Amino acid sequence: FKEEIIQYRRGLNDTRNEQHLHSTFLASTRMKLMAFFVALSSVVMAGFIYQAMKQEYNLRNMKTRMAENTADFQRNEVAIDELKTNYQIMMKALMAVNSHTVELNEKKKDHETMAQQVTDHSVAKENAERDIQQLKKLILDRDTAICAFADITKVEAR
Fold first, then answer.
1. Distance (Å, rounded) from C-alpha 147 to C-alpha 156?
2. Which chain regions cross the lipid bilayer (predicted)?
3. 89-127, pLDDT tens digit by residue?
């Protein structure tokens, strides 16, 4: 009977050893699982932190680009306003030049008509002088013809 008890105790001890081994195995498995989950959560947390930092960096870059674009836009607006004012000044100058050109064209036409009138008057003057010369010659010829028939001894004929 003692042997049975000893064996029983040994068996109990074996069972206790088995339970101890089993509980030790479970404890080590639990520890491994806990370590795994801690590592996994650390990796996930690191991923979240990386994504957050990347997003912050992208937002900062976008903010910087937006500020630069706004500055460029304002510079372009100022340049456009300057171009508009220059355009208006040029248009005023062009209108003045156009009106001056119209005046000069009118003066040119007046000078051309005056030149034509001078030419016409000079031609008319030459014709009138020619007619006068012809009339003088005709009068002289008539006077000569009358004198030929007239008596020179009389005072009236002279």
1. 11
2. 33-53
3. 999 999 999 999 999 999 999 999 999 999 999 999 999
